[in-house]
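=== RUN LOG ===
request id: a7f3
mode: sequence -> structure
chains: 1
length: 171
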Amino acid sequence: RSSFFKNSYTLWLSVEIITTEDLRRTITVSGSYFFNQTENTNQSNIIRNYFSDDGQRYVENNSSSTNNINHRGNIKLEYRPDTLNRINWNARITTQDNSLSSGTEGQTSFWPHDSVAILLNNQNNTSLKAINLNSNVLYQHRFQKARRTFSLDFNVLLNTRNGAGDYLAMT
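=== RESULT ===
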């Protein structure tokens, strides 16, 4: 005979803001921000009774929890001092924060004295943090002669990821 119980829930939240502003006729600014968070939690229990002479019984409890948080921001600025020149600046940033925790506890016992033969305990914890930053500046000059332009483009990228984890197993 075996029994199984499971509980689970998920929580999700998301927010986004977008805006564009025309500051005079020569400057245009636009930007957006996005936030997302997800949480998941699971629990399950298993009970197994074996019909044997030694009355073996196995009980297991499992749990896990994850949390994920994301932020994204964008900004764009366009400057046109005249009809021949243009400067564009774009910047993006994203951050992510993930964590996971899980565990399993198990026990094998024998009836009638409930003497414990095997104990099991596994724990796992991990975390990850990441930041991505991208910035771009573009200068364009259009010459009086048709189809003649000069452009300069500068990019800056920054990507970092830091993660850690530990695992503990005992029997």
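=== NOTES ===
The first strand starts at residue 2 and ends at 23.
The two ends are 24 Å apart (CA to CA).
=== END ===
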